[in-house]
Amino acid sequence: MTWQPELTPAEAMSRIAELNAYLDPHKAAAAERGESTWMGIPDRWYDALRWRCVSGHVTRGIIKSEERGGDVCPACGLPARLTFPEDTSAQAGVGSEGQGEGA
């Protein structure tokens, strides 16, 4: 596995903000449909367990890393967040350089 170099704290926060901005409309749409949530995330997202990283990879698994400060992508080692079940790396949005599903 070849991990990308660590981001500076400012770069990481900026990329995470972009990722959150990509995911927030999907969370809002689920809330408008009346879907139940846990910690602000629609329950059905937990059923499929897919993560999107700040580089655009969408994976079915993550690595918990104290060294890197939380959930990271197994493909590149950058921060990852739980995403909606229909998400794919091919979709426009954060990290359009994504390289397909991993792990």
List keywords for this structure.
2 helices, two-stranded antiparallel ribbon, 3-stranded antiparallel sheet, alpha+beta, 103 residues, single chain
3D structure, described in words:
This is Cobalamin synthesis protein P47K. It comes from Deinococcus grandis. With 103 residues, the protein is an alpha+beta fold. It is built from two helices and seven strands. The protein has one domain. The strands form three sheets. It has a three-stranded antiparallel β-sheet with strand order 4-3-7. It has a two-stranded antiparallel sheet with strand order 1-2. The relative contact order is 0.22. The C terminus is likely disordered.
pLDDT averaged over residues:
82
The helix count comes to 2
Question: What amount of the residues lies in strands?
Answer: 15-25%
Number of strands: 7
Topology as a string of helices (H) and strands (E):
HEEHEEEEE
Oligomer: single chain
Kindly provide the radius of gyration, computed on alpha-carbon positions and rounded to a whole number of angstroms.
13 Å
- Number of domain modules: 1
Summarize the structure.
With 103 residues, this protein is of the alpha+beta class. The protein has helices at 9-32, 43-48; strands spanning 37-38, 41-42, 50-53, 58-59, 63-65, 70-72, 80-83. The protein contains 2 helices and 7 strands; from the N terminus they run H-E-E-H-E-E-E-E-E.
